[in-house]
């Protein structure tokens, strides 16, 4: 069996091993982790004919540089508008390249987007926990964060010359500035004015942005008499408001329970586009009914049918 | 006491239904949570992905491609009308704790705030009868209710970084044995060699929600022995 070894020459913060996620363990305090942008991750795997949840590397705006120390492997890069430099030249993400021994691959921030995915044609070797190598960044559980000096080993590494070249970047993979939410589950703790601000006023993402979530800057949303509601289950996309009135969107590594009131929850279909917004970019929320949210989810799973599950 | 406003069914985005049984910790709501959790384990609703029990409510996570909030609400109501047979109380676990000074960084502060001696604080912690109410915050963090009144303290004003795995921490009526090194704003009373993350693939977590816990005191030699033998 052929094997490829990539040496990490540089890795920015928040660069980690991810697979489809650690699903089904919320009741034990274990969040799903997995890719921030599930659509881009799935497209990268699909480009290589990989199983939908195959492990790869999630790359933040900090970028990643690897040198191929052994073997050769074809790699798909999808998500955001990153810059990719390889032996075949300089281009954008949404591409498939082959890296051979002695060659360098540089992935760095480009004109848009916040996350991109590097998926190998082969099996990325990482230590699983509960059947998944997805990294839970706050605890380090799973395949782990990447740092300079580390090696990435890919077993069953394949070279797939016929899929090399550009990948189509779907419209749904672009950053989404208009994001649908379902109000609640604790919107009752907020005044009508606060809810009107959430769904009317522009908010900006801040630099307080990692895999657990992102704090937003905009009109304050002070909850009324809800500073100590009993800790309750949280889903990805929850917009929770701490005592200071600043909303935060909880993302892939969100805590599974929490006692701050959640004013609204972003619909699943819009999360991939939301996470591709960068700090300081503007987002506007609009409310949809739960029925409309289910409709959006079905539309999205239909659109993704050839690629996922 | 029955309350006409509960149970309440609150939709969450496109894939969750929060079933609320009350709004205060310590009342009858948690029994409703446990009963529904058992009912949904015995007879999952179509499209159910998982359930997440908490103090006063339970989240049903579902696949929006297969079902929706209204159908899940109907199915949950039907499960509540025909509950499975009541289970006996949860399993009882004995969890050893070493309270020696190097593991008990906040003992002095707890002594200071409670006016008790260190031995009295330890005795109070050991006297508690604890029940696992939910997991949260981080993998394997089981929130156990049952800290006796004399040693109930509000959490610290700000979390402290780098609290080691195995720390036995308290805040208010709650106690947690931590599983990974994380920040915590609770008071550290000791350390346990118990493995909450068991590394047993068939039973990866020591406790289920609803289980009961009793703490036992061990010395440093026992701690080292129990930590070393991979138990």
Describe this protein with a few key phrases.
heterodimer; A: 309 residues; mainly beta; Cyclophilin; 2 domains; seven-stranded antiparallel β-sheet; seven-stranded mixed β-barrel; 36% strand; elongated; disordered C terminus; B: 231 residues; alpha+beta; Gyrase A, domain 2; seven-stranded mixed β-sheet; 5 helices
Count of discrete alpha- or pi-helical segments spanning 4 or more residues of chain A: 4
Quaternary structure classification: heterodimer
Proportion of residues in helical segments of chain A = 10-25%
What number of structural domains do the residues of chain B give? 2
Structural class of chain A: mainly beta
Strands of the widest sheet of chain B, in order across it, are 5-13-6-7-10-9-12
What is the H-and-E element order of chain A?
Answer: EEHEEEEEEEEEEEEHEEEEEEEHEH
CATH architecture of the largest domain in chain B, please?
Beta Barrel
SSE string of chain B, helix = H, strand = E? EEHEEHEHHEEEEEEEEH
Main interface by residue count: A-B, 43 and 42 residues
Q: What does this entry show, briefly?
A:
By secondary structure, chain A is mainly β. Chain A is 12% helix and 36% strand.
Account of the protein in words:
The complex is a heterodimer of chains A (309) and B (231). Chain A has four helices and 22 strands. Chain A is mainly β. In chain A, strands 7-6-9-4-1-12-11 form a seven-stranded antiparallel beta sheet, with no helix packed on it. Chain A has a seven-stranded mixed β-barrel with strand order 14-21-18-19-16-15-22. A six-stranded antiparallel beta sheet of chain A has the order 2-3-10-5-8-13, with helices on one face. Residues 305-309 of chain A have low confidence and may be disordered. Chain B has five helices and 13 strands. Chain B has helices at residues 29-42, 69-81, 107-114, 118-127, 220-228; strands at 8-12, 16-20, 48-53, 57-62, 92-98, 130-135, 142-145, 160-163, 167-171, 174-177, 182-184, 187-191, 212-218. In chain B, the strands form three sheets. In chain B, strands 5-13-6-7-10-9-12 form a seven-stranded mixed beta sheet. In chain B, strands 1-2-4-3 form a four-stranded antiparallel beta sheet, covered by helices on one side. A two-stranded antiparallel sheet of chain B has the order 8-11. The model of chain B has no long low-confidence stretch (mean pLDDT 92). Chain A binds chain B through residues 23-30, 130, 136, 138-141, 181-182, 184-185, 229-233, 235, 237-238, 255-258, 265-269, 290-291, 293-294, 296-298, 301, and chain B through 10-16, 18, 23-25, 49-59, 61, 64-65, 68-69, 134-143, 180, 182, 204-205, 209.
């Amino acid at each position: 069996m052929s094997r490829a070894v990539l040496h990490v020459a540089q890795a920015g913060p928040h660069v980690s091993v991810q697979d489809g996620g650690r699903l089904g363990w919320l009741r034990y305090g274990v969040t799903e982790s997995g890719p921030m942008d599930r659509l881009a991750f799935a497209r990268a795997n699909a480009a290589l004919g990989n199983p939908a949840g195959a492990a790869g590397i999630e790359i933040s705006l900090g970028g990643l540089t690897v040198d191929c120390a052994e073997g050769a492997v074809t790699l798909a890069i999808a998500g955001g508008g990153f810059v990719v430099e390889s032996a075949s030249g300089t281009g954008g993400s949404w591409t498939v390249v082959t890296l051979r021994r002695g060659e360098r691959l540089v992935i760095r921030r480009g004109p848009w987007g916040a996350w991109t995915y590097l998926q190998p044609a082969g099996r990325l070797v990482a230590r699983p926990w509960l059947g998944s190598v997805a990294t839970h960044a706050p605890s380090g559980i799973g395949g782990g964060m990447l740092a300079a000096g580390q090696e990435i080993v890919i077993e069953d590494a394949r070279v797939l010359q016929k899929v090399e070249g550009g990948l189509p970047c779907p419209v749904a993979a672009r950053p989404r500035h208009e994001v649908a939410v379902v109000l609640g589950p604790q919107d009752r703790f907020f005044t009508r004015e606060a809810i009107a601000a959430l769904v009317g006023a522009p908010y900006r993402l801040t630099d307080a942005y990692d895999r657990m979530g992102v704090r937003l800057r905009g009109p304050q949303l002070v909850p009324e008499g809800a500073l100590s509601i009993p800790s309750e289950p949280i889903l990805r996309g929850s917009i929770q408001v701490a005592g200071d009135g600043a909303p935060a969107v909880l993302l892939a590594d969100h805590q599974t329970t929490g006692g701050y009131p959640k004013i609204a929850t972003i619909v699943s279909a819009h999360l991939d586009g939301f996470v591709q917004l960068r700090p300081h970019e503007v987002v506007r929320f609009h409310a949809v009914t739960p029925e409309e949210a289910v409709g959006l989810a079905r539309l999205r799973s239909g659109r993704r049918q050839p690629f996922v599950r | 006491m029955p309350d006409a406003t509960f149970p309440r069914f609150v939709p969450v985005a496109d894939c969750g239904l929060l079933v609320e049984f009350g709004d205060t910790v310590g009342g009858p709501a948690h029994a409703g949570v446990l009963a529904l959790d058992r009912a949904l384990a015995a007879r999952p609703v179509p499209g159910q992905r998982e359930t997440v029990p908490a103090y006063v409510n339970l989240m049903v996570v579902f696949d929006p491609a297969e079902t929706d909030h209204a159908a899940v609400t109907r199915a949950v109501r039907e499960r509540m009308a025909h509950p499975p047979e009541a289970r006996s109380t949860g399993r009882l676990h004995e969890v050893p704790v070493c309270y020696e000074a190097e593991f008990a960084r906040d003992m002095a502060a707890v002594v200071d705030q409670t006016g008790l001696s260190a031995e009295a604080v330890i005795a109070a912690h050991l006297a508690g009868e604890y029940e696992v109410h939910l997991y949260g915050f981080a993998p394997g963090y089981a929130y156990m209710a049952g800290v006796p009144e004399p040693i109930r303290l509000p959490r610290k004003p700000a979390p402290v970084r780098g609290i080691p795995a195995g720390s036995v921490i308290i805040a208010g009526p709650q106690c947690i044995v931590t599983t990974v090194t994380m920040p915590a704003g609770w008071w550290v009373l000791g350390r346990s060699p118990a493995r909450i993350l068991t590394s047993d693939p068939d039973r990866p977590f020591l406790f289920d929600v609803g289980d009961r816990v009793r703490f036992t005191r061990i010395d440093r030699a026992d701690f080292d022995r129990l930590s070393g033998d991979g138990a």
